[in-house]
Amino acid sequence: MRLLAVAAVFLALGTGACADPRPAGEPKMPPPATSVSEVGASKPAPAAGAQPTAPPAPPTATAAPAPPASAPAPAAQPEPPAPAPEPRKLAAASGTDFAAQVRAMYRVAACGGDDPLPERFSAKVIERHCKEMAETYASYRKAWADPAGKFIADLRPLDAPKTVVYPFGGGDLVSALVVYPNATEITTISLEAPGDVRAIDTIDKSKLAADLATISHDIRRLYTSAHSTTKSLQAASHSTLPGTLMFALAALVVHGMEPVGLRYFDLQPDGSPRYLTTEEMDQRAAEFEELKKAGKKGGPKPTTHFWYAQDTPFGNVEIRFRPRGDVSGAPRIYRHIVQNVDDQHMAADDRLLVHLRQKGKVSVMTKAASFLLWYDDFSKIREYLLKHVAWMISDASGLPPSYAEPAGFEQITYGQFVGPYFIIDPKNTRAEFVKLWKAQPRRPLPFRFGYPDAEKNNHLMITRPKTAPDDPAKKRP
Q1: Does 67 fall in a domain?
Q2: Domain region containing 265
């Protein structure tokens, strides 16, 4: 327990951005159906980026002959009532809400709430697991979440948008809520798939016991490490009780929240989410298994930055949550989107950018992001951030000063940065960050946020629009 508490000081929960000294790529989202009426049909959705087929032109109307002048005008006929929407189309519009499954997984695996345990599971196994999880949560709060949260609260402006975007964010809801505890909408974007919450309905006792042990180990390591890795996050996402979902549900427990619903979705060409039905999910899962059997799914797909798209039939997930026991307010929204954000994929499929732009100005965080924002082939996500950031917190894997300053931002540094501890840096971008830290007074940073630097120093920076000289944040020692 002592070791856990000490180690957790260095937490900088990660981003799913890297597994070793090499940057990461991310996968493409499944193409959307073009309309609600297509839901449940066997016809496949159009490929991403395809132009929609124009509807056939209506037939040319032919004017009816005018009645004789002496004929009385026909009596107006009442319009027939509009037909009631078909139940299937209503279900397609809202998708299937897996509220029961997400609450069961929250109770059994994340150890949140006090709902009765399913009778088919061993209460002793779950109680032992939950005792370990409670110790992990308490240590994490004491060693990292509480001190980091208080420190960052003194930096964060009171009017920071409550809509948060976290690129390269893995399933890192836990530190997103440390940085933005009052956020009403949080979106993480990375290559890790969320997995299928319905696994809680079918997992057997022996597999549950094994997965709970794995979950306990993975979350404890995540909460006591400097950053998570693509390799570990992808491995966790393939367990029967999927790791990416588990990290999100554990985050809710840490912060005193509870889930109230879960839906899967695609992004449509206009950027809006279209929620999936059980039938669609079953069909996708079956098709995915057939492709795997045929050897067309599941293998690595090398990219410029060495990581590969994670194949999954369940690309994006939305969890609605609230403070535990509080039924008075509107639920908050957490979305995890699986998307490759390099320029090649964003140019071929711009639905994510369309979706993000509709949020307007946003609060942003990123850390342990493999320094991908330094690279020219991540210019589209970088340009999005430069146009939409209201306030951003990051380590040195954030926006380079050569892009931030011309766009009207200032960057305030904390801790010490003498260089990245790994990087492929053909343009010597690191020199910009070393200069940035040297030019400012050293402001103490008592916890790790993201990567350490080359000499294991803690460091953090704030990127914000340029402000007046008497801004209180500038006076912070």
Answers
A1: no
A2: 2-31+91-475
